[in-house]
Design goal:
With about 475 residues, this protein is α/β, with parallel strands linked by helices. The chain has 16 helices and 22 strands. About 35% of the residues lie in helices and about 20% in strands. The chain has a 6-stranded parallel beta sheet with strand order 9-10-8-11-12-13, sandwiched between helices. A 6-stranded mixed beta sheet has the order 17-18-22-19-20-21, sandwiched between helices. Strands 2-7-6-5-4 form a 5-stranded mixed beta sheet.
């Protein structure tokens, strides 16, 4: 984590010490939540629509914070610790993180995309860790607050930082890119998430390509070559391209720089070969073709940094993922649960269904699907299309949860036998129905947008399944 004197912090964030006598105070780490104060940390009070962290600055100093930022328009600064006066605490936090990153100077890999960015970030980290000291974004700390905090939590010995970048509107990724100044940028894909805010997939592509705005000259852009919108945007006169930008395309199509040449699904995940690694087979402990495509992006980053084939193999086989991204959970009863309930869009929903429908099992394949949120005016159509995508020859039962997913169930019911598709808007009723349906040899997929909290049903089903054996 960052360790500097209060004076150094003030210089780095463009602030001014409230008292010159505090300049030698030692700061260790940065905290924005007054409930999580650590000894000698710097407290940064942020201002939101319904909260103002300045109300908690004095208490944070009393609780052990060694210093705090203080916005000049908030009145007299509190006493009891070192205070740095700034015009805007959020802007100062971002400037501080950028300055710290510049000082410790790791190489930076930035990752964005509508789907798969967290999984790809985890893959890249796992491949690099065999040869480098790596620091990655934890959880979903990928926005204008989370990314600076991720940077400021880095040790000075970090050699490569793998930073996830999320967005909901134009300009957000550009800001993150300018803070992080990536050497390598990865775009996993362009999906339908945030159509409500951005209006079209092309506008989403423009937003994702903002990741190059802060790239260093001669940087490498690794992007999904199966998505024509990315290259259309890159050909636009107004597209900003850093000097000497290099590109590498990955995907399923054979005209990409790397693509799968062989795929095999098994109980341990996927084994695959690729065009760029001829003669070498890799095993990925994850199900799904889409995860193999994400792995190709991670392989390109590893190759760029000279990771050996042996360390690549080891990194893939020891992969540890952030939770709820096609997490395979086995209940003691034998019931298999696929937890992909962190988020959902039409693209990721189809990919999750593909995983379920490719699973080999001696029981039944059951899809539990919830609403996909923030899809804009065509949200009903998107849900209907997912219902039509489900294959009754490969999925035995479909359960939906939420008002939008009722349209998914209606479309699926047109192809499935009667009594194989059920729609719920009550979570307890869904739970009761699943308890009566699922058997020990079944495979059950849970997929929905985060706001639906479908994982609550998954965990209760797992607990119920295990209790039946006791």
């Amino acid at each position: 984590m960052i360790t500097r004197t209060l004076y150094n912090i003030a210089v780095m964030c463009g602030g001014e010490l409230s008292s010159a006598g505090d300049k030698e105070i030692e700061i260790a780490g940065v905290v924005t939540d007054s409930r999580k104060i650590t000894p000698a940390c710097l407290f940064v009070p942020l201002v939101g629509d319904n909260f103002d962290g300045h109300h908690y600055a004095a208490a944070s100093l009393a609780a052990g914070a060694a210093g705090a930022l203080w916005q000049r328009d908030k009145g007299p600064a509190p006493e009891g610790g070192g205070v740095i006066l700034v015009e805007d605490t959020l802007a100062a936090l971002q400037k501080l993180s950028s300055a710290y990153l510049s000082e410790i100077a790791p190489r930076v890999v930035a990752v964005t995309g509508s789907n798969g960015k967290t999984t790809t970030k985890d893959m890249i980290t796992s491949l690099l860790e065999g040869q480098y000291k790596v620091h990655k974004t934890q959880g979903n700390f990928n926005n204008h607050i989370g990314l600076p905090l991720t940077i400021l939590s880095m040790d000075t010995e970090v050699e490569i930082a793998v930073l996830e970048m999320g967005m909901s509107s134009r300009g957000e990724i550009a800001l993150l890119s300018r803070i992080a100044a990536p050497d390598v940028a990865v775009i996993t894909n362009v999906g339908e998430s945030h159509l409500l805010q951005l209006g079209s997939r092309k506008e989403i592509a423009r937003a994702k390509l903002e990741i190059v705005d802060g790239m260093k000259p001669g940087g490498l852009l690794i992007y999904n070559g199966d998505e024509p919108l990315l290259e259309e945007v890159m050909a636009e006169p107004e597209f900003y391209s850093p000097e000497g930008l290099q590109t590498f395309r990955f995907g399923q199509a054979g005209d990409n720089d790397d693509y799968p040449t062989g795929l095999m699904t098994h109980s341990g995940g996927m084994t695959f070969t690729s065009h760029h690694h001829a003669g070498r087979a890799f095993t990925l402990p994850l199900p799904g073709r889409h995860n193999v495509i994400n792995a190709l992006a991670a392989l390109a980053v590893a190759r760029h940094y000279g990771v050996t084939e042996e360390n690549i193999e080891a990194g893939l086989s020891s992969l540890k993922l952030t939770g709820m991204r096609i997490e395979v959970m086995l209940a003691s009863s034998g019931l298999t649960l696929l937890n992909d309930a962190y988020n959902a869009s039409p693209t990721s929903m189809r990919a999750a269904i593909d995983v379920l429908q490719s699973m080999k099992c001696s029981g039944r394949r059951i899809a539990v699907l919830g609403d996909m949120l923030e899809l804009g005016p065509d949200e009903v159509l998107f849900h209907q299309q997912i219902g039509s995508y489900l294959d009754p020859a490969l999925t035995d039962y479909v359960y939906t949860y939420g008002p939008l997913s009722a349209h998914m169930a209606a479309a699926a019911a047109e192809r499935f036998e009667a009594g194989h598709v059920f729609a719920f808007t009550d979570k307890e009723a869904l739970m009761t129905a699943l308890n009566g349906q699922c058997g020990p040899k079944d495979v059950v997929l849970f997929k929905a947008s985060r706001g639906m909290r479908l994982e609550e049903v998954l965990h209760r089903l797992k607990d119920h399944s295990e209790a039946d054996l006791n």
